[in-house]
Amino acid sequence: MAIDSELLVVGGGLAGLTTAVTAAREGVDVRLVSYKQSTLRNASGLVDVLGYTPDGEGPLTDPFAAIPELPDDHPYRTVGVDGVRSAMDVFDEVTDYRGGHTDTNALLPTHGGTVKPTARYPPGAAAGVASDDRDVLLVGLQSMTDFDAPHVAAHLEAAGVPFDVSGVTIQFPGDLQADAKVTRYAKLLETDPATRDGFVERIEANRSGQQRIGLPAVLGDDDHDRVRTHLESELGAAVFEVPSGPPSLPGLRLEDALFSALDSAGGSFETGNPVVDYEGDDRIDHVLVEKSGTEVPYSADQYVLATGGLVGKGIDSDREGVYEPIFDCHVDHAEDRYEWFDGDVFGDHPFARYGVDTDDRLRVLDADGDPQFDNLRAAGGVLGGYDYAAEKSGSGVSIATGYHAATAATEEL
């Protein structure tokens, strides 16, 4: 017996969650199915709309002003400026992120010592904006080698930030081993007063009057705001988290917020079981979800493919070509594998823009430019026509196209 819904979303990343949340808030019977853990746990937790143009111009001050000048096949051109704004409004309504008051990108420091243009950022990162001219002390932990505070400080100074910045490395109270998970640091700071007090003492011992203190993104898990505000009160300084690499607590927090929003809106979701096939001709009748060796049919009126790009395996490749593995959607690419990439490591790599093509309602197109199925749309990293890494546009495209796909599908129910 098939499991039925009005809209089935395949993929549980930012695009899939935005699709599901948007539709569920409109009263649609939504089910989200995701096989692997969301890539949000590998993300910084910052939400970029557009940091650089495809030609490398930037960092952009106003990402919305640059959208009309993007190439015709860019997903933002499909959605349009107003569509991107509407999508970001939904995101703002279901999260506590900052930045929605302005079209201007904020510049935030990263764990690599760069300054990143971003449109939305969590409250825990707010005190780190580069437009604030108060001096900064960056504090690293000896057992966390991926955040070298003195190194980051030197790079930020070289980048010309408008404040004095210095970095120190301290020992975390309890002397955790180098392979300790970030959640271990977070839980200790959240639940153990002695750890918090010792942390404050070690920071204060290395501080010389700086008004802002930047720390690795480990300041609590379920109750991170309370941990941060406690540190601010004890230190008498603004405290912020520096977005870090995977596994990323800010990314996990964002994932939790979106799943909570989906649950509150009445949507259903399940993870851990892959969609492996489908049945249908001009329309998808149902997909097959593998559960304990059995293929279970899931049927819906409308479907949205949001499985990610090459990194998330929503787009895959072998020696024969580049393909989408669930619905066998067409992915336009050069037949010669040597034309997939540029000889320069930092060059313009065509593979970075590989993905499915869509019409103006995000229905997936076949090789002839016609809708492959009447009821299948795509959103997020599985789309072609943009280089999210170079443009710093991945989160924004996921949110905007997820919103647009949900809206278009809902209109046909």
Task: Report what the structure shows.
By secondary structure, the protein is α/β, with parallel strands linked by helices. It has 2 domains: 3-99 and 251-411, FAD/NAD(P)-binding domain (3-Layer(bba) Sandwich); 111-242, Rossmann fold (3-Layer(aba) Sandwich). It contains 11 helices and 15 strands. It has helices spanning 14-25, 63-66, 75-79, 81-94, 149-158, 182-191, 193-205, 224-235, 249-264, 388-391, 394-411, and strands at residues 3-10, 30-34, 106-109, 115-118, 136-141, 165-170, 212-216, 238-242, 268-271, 275-280, 284-291, 294-305, 316-318, 321-323, 376-378. Strands 1, 2, 9, 10, 11, 12 and 15 form a 7-stranded mixed β-sheet that branches. It is globular and about 70 Å long. It starts with a strand and ends with a helix.
Sum this structure up briefly:
By secondary structure, this protein is an alpha/beta fold. It has eleven helices and 15 strands.
Notable characteristics:
single chain, 413 residues, alpha/beta, FAD/NAD(P)-binding domain, Rossmann fold, 2 domains, seven-stranded mixed sheet, four-stranded parallel sheet, 11 helices, 15 strands, 29% helix, 20% strand, globular
